Amino acid sequence: MAAPLPLLPVKRAATDDDAGAGASPDDQQGPGGGVAGAEARRAVKAVLFLAAVALPCLVLYHAVAPPADVLLRPGVVAATVPWWLGDPRGDVELEHEQDSEDARLERVLRAAAMPNDTVILTTLNSAWSEPGSVLDVFLESFRTGESTRALLDHLVIVSLDTTAHARCRRIHRHCFALVTGGVDFSGQKNFMTDGYLKMMWRRIDFLRQVLEKGFSFVFTDTDIVWFRNPVPHFYPDGDFQIACDHFTGDPDDLSNAPNGGFAYVRSNTETIELYRFWYAARERHPGLHDQDVLNAIKRDPYVAELGVRIKFLSTDLFGGLCEPSRNMSRVCTMHANCCIGLRRKISDLNAMLQDWRRFVALPRDEKHSAFWTVPRNCR
């Protein structure tokens, strides 16, 4: 069917009613002071009105807008511009800032999820999020790895303090602020200090929330560099799959030494209950971190009764400084584990990236001879 023709404006003759009700005396006069003159005066009034509105706006713009040369300087990203001058996320954040934590979490997870409702999660505080710190190395690994850049679209950075959240919003798309009342997670938390333990257990409780919402996840510490997409290497029959500080060679062997810094967990009733049991077990094992408590409960009869299928990931694919991968042609991730001290971690993580770039640049027939130069500072 042809599209209907547009309606044309209808001209009608002037009537006595027009002259009496809608027209001024000038409208009824001749060429010098008639209709044309009135239209000209109306046009002048319109111009003056627009000028009166535009002038204050122009003054406000110059008061708040950064100079053009600032926006063009290297290292200044678009997100440093106030939302009303160009950051498309600012108005969204303001619109939802009064939402509950639960509603904000649901929205962020939904936006980042893969088609099968799987997300990639990492947590960090301000010490790890500063420019040049661990977060920058972590994100750079996704950009230089094989088939990993697109995974950034599914990564949710969970910030444990406001400074880390502000940094996330400047450089990444999916950010979630995890607030813990009465606890300051902003500074560097040394291994096994009280602040470190609280941060680790807050993480376990948060991951349980994600599972309860129906989202599976790949959890990764931020001091892990990604070189290949790990998803194709997960076991098809594993509910809870976790990396190791030491791998015995058998993915079903409970003697493996798990490392909670990297795990793939499917959302189902078994894993939700496992995380509840794991979190509650902290009270029976005071002073231990989540990894040691997992070691304590992995043989618990209740875990066996749950029927959760536990798998341990090979260090050949998911290596670390405790036990580096032996094959750079297969490795997916490398973890700066078995290393205490933020500066040492950053140094060796950067060295891993250098090793990777050197490997990628090698001719195919020489790649088999590539090796890691780490640990260096984390010996």
From TrEMBL:
<keyword id="KW-0808">Transferase</keyword>
<dbReference type="Pfam" id="PF03407">
    <property type="entry name" value="Nucleotid_trans"/>
</dbReference>
<comment type="similarity">
    <text>Belongs to the glycosyltransferase 77 family.</text>
</comment>
<dbReference type="GO" id="GO:0000139">
    <property type="term" value="C:Golgi membrane"/>
</dbReference>
<feature type="region of interest" description="Disordered">
    <location>
        <begin position="15"/>
        <end position="36"/>
    </location>
</feature>
<keyword id="KW-0328">Glycosyltransferase</keyword>
<keyword id="KW-0961">Cell wall biogenesis/degradation</keyword>
<keyword id="KW-0812">Transmembrane</keyword>
<feature type="domain" description="Nucleotide-diphospho-sugar transferase">
    <location>
        <begin position="151"/>
        <end position="349"/>
    </location>
</feature>
<dbReference type="InterPro" id="IPR029044">
    <property type="entry name" value="Nucleotide-diphossugar_trans"/>
</dbReference>
<protein>
    <recommendedName>
        <fullName>Glycosyltransferase</fullName>
        <ecNumber>2.4.2.-</ecNumber>
    </recommendedName>
</protein>
<dbReference type="InterPro" id="IPR005069">
    <property type="entry name" value="Nucl-diP-sugar_transferase"/>
</dbReference>
<dbReference type="GO" id="GO:0071555">
    <property type="term" value="P:cell wall organization"/>
</dbReference>
<feature type="compositionally biased region" description="Low complexity">
    <location>
        <begin position="20"/>
        <end position="29"/>
    </location>
</feature>
<keyword id="KW-0735">Signal-anchor</keyword>
<keyword id="KW-0333">Golgi apparatus</keyword>
<dbReference type="GO" id="GO:0016757">
    <property type="term" value="F:glycosyltransferase activity"/>
</dbReference>
<dbReference type="InterPro" id="IPR044821">
    <property type="entry name" value="At1g28695/At4g15970-like"/>
</dbReference>
